[in-house]
């Protein structure tokens, strides 16, 4: 007996009449969804370039902040209580904060120290290891090791999304990978046929629409349709954002479409956080992209958002003092951004070390008082049921989980 989805896939794989190959539509070629091993969703975002956590979530109650950062911290932030302030350009996230769906963890880092290399720092972050970990653990990522121990996990369970490599999902456990393809060579008739083929199959219809959007060529109207088509609503404008990024929007919509079905783990990265000069302006675009990603995921996931834990982490923090170019250099302690209905938001977690000279790491950086792996480990423990012993031996080898920070 024929199956409509198999027929659609066969059509795409043959490439008949469309003028493109199946490889041009990687988002349409994933396998039939399988039973999901867990009910919650986990999104991990790597903020490449070393996000300045002291700028995103500011310790405004510490009188030394403005002395150490007279230009970067000159503009008043958005109060989050008596001590903390959110960056003034992240006001669009405040509804999530008030709803308990946005939180932060301050003064955290990986075990990486002193060498200050983006590449090495990201390698350790994605491998989930310390600097002295056995070489074997450097070959795969901690999310992949988590997948390997989830009963019933299939390749559909996890997606690596984006154009960059994501070692955090590399390893023995199979995963799906997707990146937007912007060079689809579809004729007008081919695009119309593709839309009609997937009209009654919502997950694939969404994926097809995303693929068409990424071509940058609007779907042409047939002559007899022009007067009957209702006017489309204008795209939403995100408050505080410089400009919506179409690629970030595509990432979020595609991720949400999969997470509404059988995908449970998504990883992607957002670059651009290296702010050595003119940080007050340089940090705006990556902040806007992060905000857009969170808000689009929340809107697209619908009720699934309440089962979602979003964690954004970076390879290391930045120096406490601004430099002569009104920027910051590579540091140590930083911050994590958390969101979703599955996390306990509306709070800034972590032990604050202070900004006094004797409280800094190496006299220049925010002192780390927590480990990003521990935060992620407690989230994983709560949402997947992974045993603490496995977290400390297999997923994050050598990690002392420490006390529960109360993030979930």
UniProtKB/TrEMBL annotation:
PROSITE patterns (UniProt xref): PROKAR_LIPOPROTEIN, TAT
Name the record gives this protein: DUF1501 domain-containing protein
Alphabetical list of InterPro entries matching this protein: DUF1501, TAT_signal
Pfam families assigned: DUF1501
């Amino acid at each position: 007996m024929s199956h409509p989805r198999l027929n659609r896939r066969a059509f795409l794989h043959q490439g008949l009449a469309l003028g493109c190959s199946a490889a041009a539509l990687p988002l349409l070629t994933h396998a039939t969804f399988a039973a999901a091993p867990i009910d919650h969703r986990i999104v991990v975002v790597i903020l490449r370039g070393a996000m300045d956590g002291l700028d995103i979530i500011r310790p405004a109650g510490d009188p030394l902040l403005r002395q150490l950062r007279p230009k970067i911290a000159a503009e008043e932030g958005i109060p989050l209580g008596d001590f903390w302030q959110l960056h003034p350009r992240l006001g669009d996230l405040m509804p999530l904060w008030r709803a308990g769906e946005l939180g932060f963890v301050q003064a955290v880092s990986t075990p990486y120290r002193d060498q200050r290399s983006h590449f090495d720092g990201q390698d350790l972050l994605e491998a989930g290891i310390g600097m002295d970990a056995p070489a074997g653990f450097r070959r795969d990522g901690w999310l992949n090791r988590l997948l390997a121990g989830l009963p019933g996990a299939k390749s559909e369970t996890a997606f690596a999304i984006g154009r960059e490599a994501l070692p955090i999902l590399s390893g023995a456990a199979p995963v799906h990978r997707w990146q937007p393809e912007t060079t689809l060579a579809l004729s007008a008739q081919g695009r119309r046929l593709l839309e009609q083929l997937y009209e009654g199959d919502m997950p694939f219809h969404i994926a097809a629409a995303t693929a068409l959007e990424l071509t940058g060529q609007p779907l042409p109207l047939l002559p007899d349709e022009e007067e009957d088509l209702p006017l489309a609503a204008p795209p939403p404008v995100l408050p505080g954002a410089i400009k919506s990024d179409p690629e970030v929007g595509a990432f979020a919509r595609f991720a949400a479409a999969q997470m509404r079905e059988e995908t449970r783990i998504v990883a992607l990265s957002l670059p651009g956080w290296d702010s050595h000069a003119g940080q007050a302006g340089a940090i705006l675009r990556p902040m806007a992209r992060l905000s857009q990603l969170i808000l689009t995921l929340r809107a697209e996931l619908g009720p699934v958002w309440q089962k979602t834990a979003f964690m954004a982490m970076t390879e290391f923090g930045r120096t406490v003092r601004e430099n002569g170019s009104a920027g910051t250099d590579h540091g140590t302690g930083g911050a994590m951004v958390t969101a979703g209905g599955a996390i306990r938001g509306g709070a800034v977690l972590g032990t604050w070390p202070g900004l006094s000279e004797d409280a800094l790491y190496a006299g220049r950086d925010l002192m780390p008082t927590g480990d990003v792996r521990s935060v992620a480990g407690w989230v994983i423990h709560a949402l997947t049921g992974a045993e603490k012993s496995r977290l400390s031996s297999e997923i994050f080898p050598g990690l002392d989980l420490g006390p529960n920070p109360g993030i979930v």
